[in-house]
Amino acid sequence: MLAISTLWNALKQQDGAALFDELKNLGFETLELSRHLTPDQMEQLKPSLRENPPCSIHNFCPILPGTSQADAERDKLLLSSLDTDARKEAIRRTLGTMELALDLEIPIVVLHLGEVDTYDRSYLMTDLYTYGEREFEAFSPKVTEATEWRQRKEAKHRDAVLRSLDELNEHALRMELCIAIENRPHYYQIPNFDEVGLFFEKFYGSPMRYWHDVAHAARQESLGLCRADRWFTAYAEHLIGVNLHDLQGLEAYHPPGTGDLAWDDIFKQLPSDLLKVLEMRPCEAEPVIAARELCESLSPLPETSDA
To answer: What is the pTM (predicted TM-score) of this model?
Structure first.
């Protein structure tokens, strides 16, 4: 299945019914609800969504009170928070998204788990990238310097995420929903590569799955953090869906085929029946349609048995 995220037009089309029609006209099989939808847009979308259930929804959707659409990616509430009240509020808001998913028959809720509260030292790696030192090994000393600061604080935040996931998995089981943890683009965000494995070890057999973002993994590789293909190899057992967008340098959310990623190689790693969602920032319709056609051309045809 090939879907498109509402990220593409949520910020530029405030009428939910028109927003749905614009996405439908692009020729995708279904859509994914992004974190950028307002409560008003959601209410206007619901009649169309009840007839055409989305494939997935990202937490938090709709946007939190007091948050603008443009700031939706900057989490104000974190499932990793060390403040108990703030973490409980993040759980409560997550359950609101899960209840919306249940109401609209959306099978997958994609979770952003939070981050480690550490000073952002991404510049140590991005400066190297900018000046052309792009061999993976060249980043090693700078990656070590940044991640050592993360390691000093990560245990408490990881424990907070474990407590949050424990509660959310119980609800997901009762609601018959899958909750999917997503890889993130920045080293200080949760989960890093090893934390994904830890979480599945703790919650093996639960409704929790892995959601892979292609460009997030590629960005981490560009900065020397983790080889992009390791995620596929290690967590294939848990993989339930993937977000597709291209990188131009380190800038994400471009239509596939308009940036630096090798899409032939990427699609060779994707199971043919995997849910694939194109996640692109606002742009003209033509490159989005071209990206859909590219992805369709690279997707293996379903196997058929001989008569």
So the answer is: 0.94
